[in-house]
Recover the amino acids of this structure.
């Protein structure tokens, strides 16, 4: 998978992971892929809900210890 942009949102509390993710997605073209890593457990529900509402697609979601990594394709 070709990652077009990576975002490190570790250590940020809600709602900042979503705010930063949206800003990063706004810089991408349709079809491009963002990888975002967070530590806020609320993001497990928040990021997929935001992606669905904004017509973006979660390609993968990985939990590795305290870190959660999402791969999101811009719709």
């Amino acid at each position: 998978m070709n990652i077009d942009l990576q975002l490190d949102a570790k250590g940020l509390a809600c709602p900042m992971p979503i705010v930063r993710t949206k800003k990063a997605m706004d810089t991408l073209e349709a079809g491009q892929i963002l990888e975002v890593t967070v530590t806020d457990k609320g993001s497990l529900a928040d990021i997929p809900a935001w992606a669905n509402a904004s017509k973006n697609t979660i390609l993968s979601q990985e939990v590795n210890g305290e870190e959660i990594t999402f791969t999101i394709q811009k719709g």
About this structure: The longest strand covers residues 57-64. Residues 16-26 form the longest helix (11 residues). Helices lie at 16-26, 43-53. The mean pLDDT is 97.
